[in-house]
Structures are given as structure tokens and as C-alpha cells.
Amino acid sequence: MELVYAALLLHSAKKPVDEAGVKKIVDAAGIKADEAQIKALVGSLKDVNIEEAIKNAAVAAAPAAAPSAAAPAEEKKDEPSEEEQEAKAEEAAGGLSSLFG
Q1: Distance of alpha carbon 13 from alpha carbon 21, whole angstroms
Q2: Has this prediction a pTM greater than 0.90?
Q3: Nearest CA to 34 among 16, 44, 46, 22?
Q4: How far apart, in whole angstroms, are the C-alpha atoms of residue 1 and residue 31?
Q5: What is the per-residue pLDDT across 31-75, written as a single tens digit (0 to 9) for each?
Q6: What is the DSSP string of 15-62?
Q7: What letter does residue 84 receive in the DSSP assignment?
Q8: Which residues lie closer than 8 Å to 11 by C-beta, 6 or more apart?
Q9: Which architecture characterizes domain 2-71 according to CATH?
């Protein structure tokens, strides 16, 4: 993942995304990266329009974030009332007393 971040950083700085640039960024961050991984990443990004890929990724990620806003409201419905909790505690106590009965 760090290699992808390095490539994005080079792109945002309007620098060429090449092996030397990615290696410099990764080394500066103190991360040891495999030369083959760097070469594979740069090779796979050669024919990719990074700006277009970023725009498409941002649009696809937006709908996924919307359902998470409704999740906290659903959690509140599952909480048992105090009466239900007391009834369960009494049942548990009754069950334990029958063991030692």
C-alpha cells in the first residue's frame, strides 16, 4: 500500500511516476520495499490515467458511506428494558438454585 501512496504523491507533485521516484519516497519514509514490487507497480501504472482513476474511485466510495449513518439508530432498538433485564436475572438465579437444591 505504501508504494501506491508513493505513486500518488509523485502524481500530485506533478513528477513522473517512475521507479527511482517511488524508491526515493519509500526510502525517505523508512520503509524497505522490494525492487520487484516497485517495478511491477510502475509498470502497471504506465497506461493508467491516474486522474480518471481517482475520480472513479471517489464516486464509487461515496454510496458505501451512506448506510453506516443509519446503523446507530438500529442499535438502540435492540437494548432490552430494565424489566426484561430483571426477569432474566431472576431466571438465571432460579436456574442456579436448582443445581444446588
Answers
A1: 11
A2: no
A3: 22
A4: 11
A5: 998 999 999 999 999 888 988 888 888 776 666 555 555 555 555
A6: ----HHHHHHHHHHTT----HHHHHHHHHHHTT--HHHHHHHHHHHHH
A7: H
A8: 17, 50
A9: Orthogonal Bundle (1.10)
One-letter amino acid for residue 69 of the chain: A
Contacts 24+ apart (CB under 8 A), 4-10: 4/41, 7/41, 7/42, 7/45, 7/50, 8/50
The residue with cell 501504472 is 45
Rounded to whole angstroms, how far apart are CA atoms 18 and 39?
8
47: region left, alpha or beta (phi > 0 left; psi from -120 to 50 alpha): alpha
Cell of 88: 432474566
Enumerate residues 6+ apart whose C-beta is below 8 A from 29. Answer: 2, 6
C-alpha cell at 98: 436448582
Dig out the grid coordinates for 24 from the structure: 526515493
Q: Taking each helix axis from N to C terminus, what angle separates 50-65 and 2-12, rounded to the nearest 10 degrees? A: 120
User: From CA 22, how far away is CA 82, in angstroms rounded?
Assistant: 59
